[in-house]
Amino acid sequence: MKEISFRNDVLPLKNELYRLALRITLSRQEAEDVVQDTLIKIWNRRDSWQQIDSIEAYSMTICRNLALDRTRKASFQQPSLEMTTVEEPRTRTADPQEKAIRRDQLNLVRDIINSLPEKQRSCIQLRDFEGKSYKEVAAALQISEEQVKVNIFRARQTIKQRFQKLDEYGL
């Protein structure tokens, strides 16, 4: 069994934990607090690290649970996710109108993702944005791989349908 190091195995997960917490809490400040609390909780349990199969899944589970607890306690959600800037793909033309349309579409997709149920949002975040395998997502969220696949399928269908509907009507 591999020796687990906080510096080499846990700290590199900080950005992934932040993005997961941000998807759940929809608040940068809350997400930062959740990550800090997660790291403290992991550190305080360092005596039991050797019994853990995957420190990454363990960390994601703690982060998710803390984020859900904070969201439940706050009993409110902010209207939209304040995401870090996403670099737009480079195109041949620098047409301001095309850039504005792409930016609006990106914001629309973000809003749709924010409106998804928490479990679907978490699955999409870990699978599509973090690039985790179905097995890793299932371990982090403590659900079966089949549930992960169902949640991702439903989330993608919802995103597609809502985007097409809103895009067609120009809303």
Short key terms for the protein model shown above:
elongated, 171 residues, mainly alpha
Query: Helical proportion?
Result: 55-70%
Number of H/I helices: 8
Series of secondary-structure elements, N-terminal to C-terminal: HHHHHHHH
Please indicate the percent range of residues in DSSP E strands (runs of 2 or more).
Answer: under 5%
Radius of gyration, in angstroms, nearest whole number: 18 Å
Could you tell me how far the N terminus lies from the C terminus, measured between alpha carbons in angstroms? 54 Å
> Largest sheet at a glance?
none
Q: Low-confidence stretches at least 5 residues in length (pLDDT < 50)?
A: 76-88
**Helical/strand content category:** mainly alpha
Q: Which descriptor suits the 3D outline?
A: elongated
